[in-house]
């Protein structure tokens, strides 16, 4: 059947081409996101990938299979995107009020959350036997954030080998390099990633996770800093990509929320439930000084550890809201 579709597509049959690539579109989009850290960039690079595949059908020999061929194109398009600096112009948004002294300052990370709704309906493709990361872990904010700090080719090798389970020979073919080079890049990439506490993470959508998320949302909407702090682990982090300031610990986060988050009691929040990166997530809407209109103010994602929250990640870019199906005002 595949050979027949390839022949028809080469003859200009767009429906045959669509039948070839459509089963892989969703997973390719996720792959581009893991490589780029941006839903919008992943969308653009996926379109480039499909155009390149259509134009390059004459070069498809069929030995590696359509899926591997498409991953080769997508991976190299991502690497080109990163190398050529084709990302949209990025500037760290100015802060409306002075921020407290952060626990640490880091390089800006150009990261967006990935809506779980884009994962709906994806085929349950089993990674190859050499994959080291579970599907949920490999889409988590912690994993994607960590991979963004890796050099692009190391990132590509890590995702292709440890997430998708492609064999070293396959990855070498995708990247036009040697198996020794792949092994070396993978070793360096693994060294650059932090250890993950898999045991402390409840299952996505579990009753335990939902209960923690519900209490967290109540604290935010109620402007209750004490209730929020009671939900945090002692070493919890709050980050706001791409802002370089990060805050760790209940005291630092409480101070930030009182002075900046809630504006001394002048800002209220309404949270609209969503889901991102396999984690609890909300669209944030704010009302300052009793404004009756609640205006979109990005997305908030939390990481749950046991019965508490170990990470709060605020994305203030409203450009991602359409991917979540969220409105500009409520």
Could you characterize what this model shows?
It is a single chain. By secondary structure, the protein is an alpha+beta fold. The longest helix is centred in the first third of the chain and has 23 residues, at 14-36. It has two domains: 2-87 and 132-191, RNA polymerase sigma factor, region 2, helix turn helix motif (Rna Polymerase Sigma Factor, Chain: A, Orthogonal Bundle), CATH 1.10.1740.10; 207-324, Nuclear Transport Factor 2, Chain: A. The protein has helices at residues 2-10, 14-36, 39-55, 66-83, 141-148, 152-163, 168-175, 179-191, 207-221, 225-231, 250-261, 321-324, and strands at residues 104-105, 232-239, 245-248, 267-276, 279-288, 295-305, 308-315. The protein has twelve helices and seven strands. Strand 4 (267-276) and strand 5 (279-288) form a beta hairpin.
Number of strands: 7
Overall radius of gyration: 21 Å
Strand content: 15-25%
Write down the overall geometry.
elongated
How helical, in percent, are the residues? 40-55%
Provide the number of structural domains: 2
Distance between the termini: 49 Å
Give, in order, the helices and strands: HHHHEHHHHHHEEHEEEEH
Assembly of the depicted chains? single chain
Biggest β-sheet: strands ordered side by side in the sheet:
1-3-2-7-6-5-4
In short, what is this structure?
The chain is an alpha+beta fold.
Fold blueprint:
Elements: H1 2-10, H2 14-36, H3 39-55, H4 66-83, E1 104-105, H5 141-148, H6 152-163, H7 168-175, H8 179-191, H9 207-221, H10 225-231, E2 232-239, E3 245-248, H11 250-261, E4 267-276, E5 279-288, E6 295-305, E7 308-315, H12 321-324
Helix pairs in contact: 1-2, 2-3, 2-4, 3-4, 4-7, 6-8, 7-8, 9-10, 10-11
């Amino acid at each position: 059947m595949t050979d027949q579709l390839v022949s028809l597509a080469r003859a200009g049959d767009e429906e045959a081409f669509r039948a070839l690539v459509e089963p892989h579109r969703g997973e390719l989009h996720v792959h581009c996101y893991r490589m780029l850290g941006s839903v919008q960039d992943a969308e653009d690079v996926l379109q480039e990938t499909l155009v390149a595949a259509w134009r390059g059908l004459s070069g498809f020999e069929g030995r590696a299979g359509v899926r591997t061929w498409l991953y080769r194109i997508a991976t190299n398009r991502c690497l080109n995107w990163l190398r050529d600096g084709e990302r949209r112009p990025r500037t760290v948004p100015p802060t409306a009020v002075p921020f407290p002294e952060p626990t640490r300052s880091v390089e800006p990370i150009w990261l967006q959350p990935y809506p779980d709704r884009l994962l709906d309906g994806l085929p349950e493709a089993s990674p190859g036997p050499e994959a080291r990361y579970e599907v949920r872990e490999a889409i988590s904010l912690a994993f994607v954030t960590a991979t963004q700090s890796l050099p692009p080719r190391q990132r590509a090798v890590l995702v292709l080998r440890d997430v998708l389970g492609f064999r070293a020979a396959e990855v070498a073919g995708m990247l036009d390099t040697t198996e020794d080079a792949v092994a070396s890049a993978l070793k360096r990439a693994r060294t650059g990633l932090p250890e993950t506490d898999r045991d402390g993470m409840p299952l996505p959508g579990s009753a335990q996770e939902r209960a923690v998320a519900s209490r967290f949302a109540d604290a935010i909407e109620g402007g209750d800093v004490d209730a929020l702090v009671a939900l945090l682990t002692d070493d919890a982090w709050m980050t706001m990509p791409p802002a370089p300031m990060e805050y760790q610990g209940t005291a630092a986060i409480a101070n930030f929320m009182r002075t900046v988050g809630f504006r001394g009691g002048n800002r209220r929040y309404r949270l609209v439930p969503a889901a991102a990166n396999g984690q609890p997530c909300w669209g944030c809407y704010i009302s300052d000084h009793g404004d009756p209109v609640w205006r979109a103010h990005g997305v908030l994602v939390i990481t749950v550890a046991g019965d508490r929250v170990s990470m709060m990640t605020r994305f203030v870019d409203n450009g991602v809201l359409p991917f979540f199906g969220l409105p500009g005002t409520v």
